[in-house]
Amino acid sequence: MFADFRELEDGLSLKADVCVIGAGAAGITIATTLAGTPLSVCLLESGGFVYETATQELYGGQTEGQPWYDAGTRESGGGQIVPELIFSRVRFFGGSTNHWGHGCVPLDDTDFAVRPWVPFSGWPIEETDLEPHYARALALCRAPAADFGRPPSDPLPVDPTKLRYHTGALGTANFGTAYRTELRRADNVKVLLHANLLELQANPDASAVEKATFGTLEGKRGTIYARSFVLCCGGIENARLLLLSNSVVGQGLGNTRDLVGRFFMDHPRGECGRIYRGHLERLAHQALYFAPQIERQEKTLQAFARFVDREVGPIPEGIAAVRKLEAAFAARTRPPDFAELIERVVLDAGDVIRGIYRRETGSDPDPNNYIEFEGQFEQAPNPESRVMLGNEVDRLGQRRTMLDWRFTELDHHTYRCFALTIGAEIARLGLGRLKLPPWLDPNSTEPAQLGGCAHHMGTTRMSDDPSCGVVNRNCRVHGIANLFIGGSSCFPTGGCGFPTLTLVALALRLARYLEQDLARAG
Amino acid sequence: MTEICNEVVSEKSRLMTAVQPANLRRRTLLAFTVAAAGFAAATVPLSAESVPAALRRLFGGNAGLREFGRIFHARQADAAARLLARLDGLEGSAVRSRVDALRKEDFAAGRVVVINGWVLARTEAEACAFIAVA
């Protein structure tokens, strides 16, 4: 069932077996998995069913560190694009699945293993621990079962020791609409909208969470008591909310070792070069990953490349007409504006002849016609890359986020190594020649001109060792018996692909653990 | 050796002395120079005549290639000499074939250099260095 806290009484007090905070991919996965079980579940969500500016604005904060962070952007009054944390996630029922790229790729055994050249790498669980949950996770994301190693139908003959294909699947689910009816019908699940977590309040020795307080933007306050609490608010908010839960432990819950918020990672992404000449049409829309062999050999992180067809500047009318005619003829149809198209070709004969000459001979490099090589990278776990509390305060009176996103030399080494590998392979295959941007020159000291993907990870990283991680292998916060974290903030490393499928698989595993754990406890 | 050194500039003379090619004759050198100028042609499936010219244009024409060469020569003064040593005893089309094979081997082995942003095979950069100092 659903309820809107704005329509309920101030001072509301609730009880549940499991309190899940945050109705995004992880929170909804846990709530739907527990639906129909003997456990009572309360799912708190900050927003409603639609986007609301005032609620979204709660994500606002400051950024520093990597200057190109694309946590979300807005145009300033001067036409300049500036980073804005506000827009890096979506804050209403369904969370960021209300606006996601739909990419579903599992992590593989490389991700889970310790890589000696990657500091802080290695998960305390193995691929086999998540593998049973990936199939269900795909179904929840409404993605088809996929053979993720399958190359495309017309693969490039790349050297498999350097590059590989790793196909993804497209998940079509918007969790906020896909599972709304199921949750509405679940007798044991209560979804409370417009309920913003204010604090997780621990018992005096901070060994367990006693209750959570929450409120509306309009000033109503409520309390929920639960046997277990699960924080599922995303890679930035999970850390922030733990840091804000400081009435018992000054440095925040789960933060006795000063690890909460550290190791913030995203997937650095951006243009890594332009490819001219050769068989650009063979490259366009291919996606190639670094092969594990070369990652080991060159001691790099993971990376993948997309090749995006670019055409800069206005397309001459005659050439546009030729393209329409070619498309129509290929489809064995006659375009309705056939006469007009022919007229445009004739009137723009100069451009058309030049274009045909270029295409047929390849002899006149067109600086406006190239393939953009876009790289997307794994980020090295780095304790100095972190989420902190800023000095600004939001409408709920809570300190806003201060995000300091930082790369390491290993990150830069990976960018350069991957770019040179791509450049060598496409030249070897006669597919084109790569020109790097200045920041990727091996002698450059410019900062990487890469943005993020709003894939926030690592801030409550998983480790069996409390001195190395915030949560254990079951996503339970070290030292706190009943506090769990759902989502990609638990990832010790994040690969270079999309995190949603893995965070859903991890949430499914956590839901099963909670069900068994609470059943054991009686 | 004496025959060649009499005809090239002093820089080249130094390079040739450095590698001591036993059988490098004048026509070998000429064939190599032609091949070096069109080094990037082989894997682009276009006509042999047009592709080198096209790539030269992409890299900024002959002046661009010489600039690449000057930059690489400044980084590695023995670049051209290294290439000449590997071409020792070859002449005519064999030089061109060898240069092409070497650049393919470079790309396969990841032996690349970056000059003005372009990712070049080391052999290509060496050939540019040769052109620049010739």
Structure description:
The complex is a heterodimer of chains A (522) and B (134). Helix content of chain A is 27%, strand content 22%. By secondary structure, chain A is α/β, with parallel strands linked by helices. In chain A, a hairpin with a 5-residue loop joins strand 12 (209-215) and strand 13 (221-231). Chain A is globular, with a radius of gyration of 25 Å. With 134 residues, chain B is mainly alpha-helical. Chain B has helices spanning 2-5, 10-19, 26-37, 50-58, 61-75, 79-86, 93-109, 122-133; strands spanning 112-115, 118-121. In chain B, helix 5 packs across helix 8 (122-133). Chain A binds chain B through residues 159, 162, 273, 276-279, 361-365, 419-421, 423-425, 427-430, 433-438, 441-442, and chain B through 40, 42-46, 50-51, 53-55, 57-58, 104, 106-108, 110, 112, 114, 117-119, 121.
Sheet with most strands: strand arrangement of chain B: 1-2
CATH superfamily of the largest domain in chain A: FAD/NAD(P)-binding domain
Which consecutive residue ranges of chain B, at least 5 long each, have pLDDT under 50?
1-25, 37-52
Shape verdict of chain A: globular
Largest beta-sheet details of chain A: 8 strands, mixed
Average pLDDT over all residues of chain A: 90
| Most extensive interface | A-B, 30 and 24 residues
The ordered string of helix (H) and strand (E) elements of chain B is: HHHHHHHEEH
